[in-house]
Amino acid sequence: MMKKLIKMLLVLQAISYTVAAQNARFPAEGVIEFERNTNMYAVIQKKIKSDNEFGARIFEEYKKANPQFKILKSTLYFSKDKTLFKPTEDANPTSSYYGSGPDVTQINTIYADLKTKQQTTRKTVFEDNFLVKDSIRAINWKITSETREIAGYMCRRANAIVMDSIYVVAFYTDQIPVSGGPESFTGLPGMILGVALPHDNISWFAKTVTDKPIDAPVIIPPSKGKPTDNKGLLVIINNAMKDWGEYGKAYLKALMF
Asked: Per residue, what are the HEC states of the chain?
């Protein structure tokens, strides 16, 4: 009797999954709202040394005035073969020395043509805006069997190393058949709804996905900024921060990300 009951439950479960799959929508265009979460305490602690009394004092002042986690919002517009990632202006910007660098703010507006594999990024480098046109970053993803639900979609985990040393964990869903994602993360067989940089204490996760038609004028490349490509930008930044020491290295990674 028990075996029959278990068998019946398994059959009913399989039927429910089939019905759900048949009724599921696979949006080819829409809007995704993301949140970027930065563990500011961990980021700042990496910047100061135990014998740096000045840095430690600023850190204590920061903790008194600011929460541990800094939340920033952004929007990803997507169509079948194009995406536009736009950061939302920070509603509570901090004037703290440690809270306003490029490693803890959002500096990129990114248009990606997934068909031609070309990308246009308006990048804010301190007080200058650059218009960086180059190919989409090729990421060697390793897809795993781990899954989790994000914003109502079942996602599969993939891992990668970018820029030679940055460990990336991403979660994508094939229920959105567009190979895009937040910031410059692309290249998986579906939309990336979650990204974490565990060693850098940063993550981006989708909060809502809205399935709706997107007017053609919405997903267009940014157009304002000093034109360059990735190699040219690297030369500019290296020249500007050659005497910045360890801070320069951290900021360089963030600016070229």
From this structure: CHHHHHHHHHHHHHHHHHHHHHHCCCCCCEEEEEEEEEEHHHHHHHHCCCCCHHHHHHHHHHHHHCCCEEEEEEEEEECCCEEEEEECCCCCCCCCCCCCCCCCCCCEEEEEECCCCEEEEEEEECCEEEEEEEECCCCCCEEEEEEEEECCEEEEEEEEEECCCEEEEEEEECCCCCCCCCCCCCCCCCEEEEEEECCCCEEEEEEEEEECCCCCCCCCCCCCCEEECHHHHHHHHHHHCCCCHHHHHHHHHHHHC
Q: What six digits make up the tokens of 107?
A: 């500096």
Tell me which residue of 170, 173, 174 sits closest to 184, measured CA to CA. 170
End-to-end distance of the chain based on CA atoms, in angstroms? 60
Quote the pTM value: 0.87
Q: What is the pLDDT of residues 112-168, one digit of tens each?
A: 999 999 999 999 998 899 999 999 999 999 999 999 999 999 999 999 999 999 999
Contact 27, 176 (CB under 8 A): yes
In tens, the pLDDT along 234-254 reads 999 988 888 777 667 778 888
